[in-house]
UniProtKB/TrEMBL annotation:
The lineage of its organism: Bacteria, Pseudomonadati, Pseudomonadota, Alphaproteobacteria, Hyphomicrobiales. It comes from Rhodopseudomonas palustris. One of its GO terms (molecular function) is hydrolase activity. SUPFAM superfamilies: alpha/beta-Hydrolases (SSF53474). This is Alpha/beta fold hydrolase. InterPro entries: AB_hydrolase_fold, FrsA_esterase, Hydrolase_4.
Length: 534
C-alpha cells in the first residue's frame, strides 16, 4: 500500500513538473515575439502573415518562402528574427501547401509548369509586401529547399530584388552575377550534394576555389556571394540554427546597408521543453484512463513468431507495391504512404491469424514433449474476449485521440507547421486513416500481451521504417521526398510510442493507443503533403 502511495506521489510530481515545463515553454515562445505586430492577410487565394515591429517605418521587406511539404509556420524563426531587427518579414503558403486551398496541377517529376505557378505565388506576395505602408519599396527574398530555386528564379527575373538567401539550395539557373547578392546556407549534416551545389554556385563568380564562410564580390554592385555552413543541423534543423539566422540577418544588413540589434530567435530549446512536457504529462494522465480488460491483451508472441510477424510484412510490402499504381489521392506521396500502411497492416493481420490458428491446432494435438508450452498458448487471451469493456475502450480511445490532436495540435499549428486542416483536406484525413488504422491496430496487438517480449514494440517500428527505406530504394525517382520525412516518422514513433505504451498499461488493451496514433499519423500526413492533381 505504501508503495502504491509513493508511486502516486511520483505521478503527481511528474505532472506538476510537466505543467511547469509546458507553461514556461509557452511563455518563452510568446516572449520571443516581443511586441511584434503580426497581421494575417490573403492575396488571391494565398494566405500570408506580416511580421513587423510597431516602430518600423520605411523599411525593406523580406519575403520568406517554405519548402516542399512545408508551410509558413515552419519559417517563423527567420520571420521573427528579421522583424525584430527592423525589417518587415512576410511568410506565406505556396499553392497546394498549408492553408492554401488551391491544388497544384502538373507532374512534380516534370515541374516546369508547377515551378511557374510557385514563382507567380512569390511574385504576388512580394508585390503586396513592397506596397505595404511601412515598406520603403526595397525587397529581399529567402527560400528553403524547393523554394531556394523559386526565390533564385524570381530574383533573377526581378533585378530590383536587393538580396537572395537560398537555404538548402538546389538550383541550376543561378549565374555569376544573377541574382544579386546571393547567400547560400546549407546544414553541415545535409547531403554532400547540397554542399557541393552551394560551392558550385559561388564558384561561378570566383572561377573556382571558393570556400565556405568567406564572402566574395561586392554588395554595392550586387555581386556578393557566400556559402555558409550551419553546424550540427540537417534539412529541417537548418531552419532553426543560430548559424543560419545569424548569417541571414548579417547578409540582409550588408545588402541594405543597415545595422540592427542582432536579436536571434532561439526557439529550439523551448520547443523541446514544450513537447517534452506534453509527452511527460501523458504518463500521469494515463493513470486516469479506465481499465478495458482484466488482463493485458495482445498477441503475446514468443520470439520466433514475433520475428516472422515483424519482418515478413516489412519485406513483402515494398515488393508488392513496387510497380503498383498509387496515384489515387490528391496529396503527393500521401497516397503511397496510405497504401504502405494498409498493406503492411493487412499482411501483419494475416500472419497473426495464421500464427493463432497454428497455436490452436498445436494446442488441440500437442506433441508429448511440448504439452506444457502449448497449454500455455491455449490460455492466451482471445481478441474477442467477452470481459473486454467496450465502454472503457471507447472512453480511453476518445481521450487518447483528443490528447494527441488537441494537446499537440495547437502548439504544432502555432509554432511549427500547419496542422489544423482547411476544408479540402478534411476528407483526406479519413482517407489516409483507412491505411493507418489497420497498421497501428495490428502493430500494437503484435507487440503486446501477457507474454509479450521486451523490445517487441521497438522491433515492430524499426521494421516499418526499414520497409519504407526499402520502398524508397526500389523507387527512388518517385519516392525521393520520403527520405526527408523518415526522421520525422522516427521522432513520432518514439514520442507517441511512449504515450501509447502508457495508455496500454493503464487500459490493458492496445486499441486506444493504436487508434490515437493512427488518427494522429493520418492527420499529419493529410495536412502536410502538398495537394497535387496530376
Amino acid at each position: 500500500m505504501k508503495s502504491g502511495h509513493s508511486f502516486g506521489a511520483v505521478r503527481i510530481v511528474v505532472a506538476l513538473l510537466a505543467v511547469i515545463a509546458v507553461a514556461l515553454a509557452l511563455w518563452q515562445l510568446q516572449r520571443g515575439k516581443g511586441d511584434l505586430i503580426v497581421a494575417h492577410a490573403t492575396v488571391g487565394d494565398t494566405p500570408l502573415t506580416v511580421f513587423r515591429a510597431p516602430t518600423t517605418t520605411r523599411a525593406p521587406v523580406v519575403v520568406i518562402a517554405h519548402g516542399f511539404a512545408g508551410s509558413q509556420q515552419l519559417m517563423q524563426p527567420f520571420a521573427q528574427t528579421m522583424a525584430r531587427n527592423g525589417y518587415i518579414a512576410v511568410t506565406f503558403d505556396f499553392t497546394g501547401h498549408g492553408r492554401n486551398p488551391v491544388t497544384m496541377k502538373g507532374d512534380v517529376d516534370e515541374p516546369t509548369r508547377i515551378t511557374g505557378v510557385l514563382v507567380d505565388d512569390l511574385a504576388r506576395v512580394t508585390d503586396y509586401a513592397r506596397a505595404l505602408p511601412q515598406s520603403d519599396g526595397r525587397a529581399a527574398v529567402l527560400g528553403h529547399s524547393m523554394a531556394s530555386d523559386i526565390v533564385v528564379r524570381y530574383a533573377m527575373a526581378h533585378p530590383e530584388i536587393v538580396a537572395t538567401v537560398a537555404v538548402s539550395v538546389f538550383t541550376r539557373v543561378a549565374t555569376a552575377t544573377s541574382p544579386r547578392n546571393l547567400l547560400v546556407i546549407v546544414g553541415a549534416l545535409e547531403p554532400q550534394m547540397l554542399i557541393d551545389e552551394g560551392l558550385r554556385i559561388v564558384n561561378l563568380s570566383t572561377g573556382g576555389g571558393a570556400v565556405a564562410g568567406r564572402t566574395y564580390g561586392e554588395f554595392d554592385k550586387g555581386t556578393a556571394r557566400r556559402l555558409a555552413l550551419s553546424s550540427g543541423v540537417e534539412h529541417i534543423g537548418v531552419l532553426y540554427s543560430q548559424d543560419s539566422l545569424r548569417e541571414a540577418l548579417a547578409w540582409m544588413n550588408d545588402s541594405f546597408g543597415r545595422t540592427s540589434s542582432g536579436w536571434i530567435d532561439r526557439r529550439p530549446i523551448w520547443l523541446a521543453l514544450l513537447f517534452g512536457g506534453l509527452i511527460a504529462l501523458a504518463w500521469p494522465l494515463s493513470a486516469l484512463l479506465p481499465q478495458a480488460a482484466p488482463v493485458p491483451m495482445g498477441a503475446s508472441l514468443a520470439w520466433k513468431p514475433l520475428l516472422i510477424a515483424a519482418i515478413a510484412p516489412a519485406v513483402l510490402t515494398p515488393l508488392l507495391l513496387w510497380k503498383a499504381p498509387t496515384d489515387f489521392l490528391i496529396i503527393l506521396l500521401g497516397d503511397y504512404l496510405t497504401l504502405h500502411f494498409l498493406l503492411y497492416g493487412a499482411l501483419t493481420a494475416a500472419i497473426l491469424w495464421l500464427i493463432r490458428l497454428r497455436q490452436r491446432k498445436a494446442a488441440t494435438h500437442p506433441p508429448h514433449h511440448a504439452g506444457h508450452s502449448l497449454a500455455r498458448l491455449e490460455s492466451l487471451p482471445d481478441p474477442a474476449h467477452p470481459r473486454t469493456s467496450i465502454a472503457a475502450l471507447i472512453i480511453a480511445a476518445t481521450v487518447a485521440i483528443a490528447y494527441n490532436i488537441i494537446g499537440f495540435g495547437w502548439p504544432l499549428d502555432t509554432y511549427l507547421f500547419s496542422f489544423m486542416p482547411i476544408e479540402p483536406r478534411v476528407h483526406l484525413i479519413a482517407a489516409v486513416a483507412c491505411g493507418t488504422i489497420p497498421y497501428f491496430v495490428t502493430a500494437e496487438w503484435m507487440a503486446h500481451g501477457e507474454g509479450a517480449r521486451r523490445g517487441a514494440y521497438a522491433l515492430a517500428k524499426f521494421c516499418f521504417l526499414a520497409s519504407l527505406a526499402a520502398a524508397v530504394a526500389l523507387n527512388l525517382h518517385k519516392l525521393f521526398f520520403l527520405i526527408i520525412i523518415v526522421p520525422a516518422i522516427l521522432l513520432l514513433f518514439v514520442a507517441f510510442g511512449l504515450i501509447s505504451n502508457w495508455t496500454y498499461k493503464a487500459t490493458n488493451h492496445p486499441l486506444p493507443g493504436a487508434l490515437a496514433n493512427a488518427i494522429l499519423f493520418a492527420w499529419a500526413i493529410a495536412v502536410t503533403f502538398p495537394m497535387v492533381i496530376r
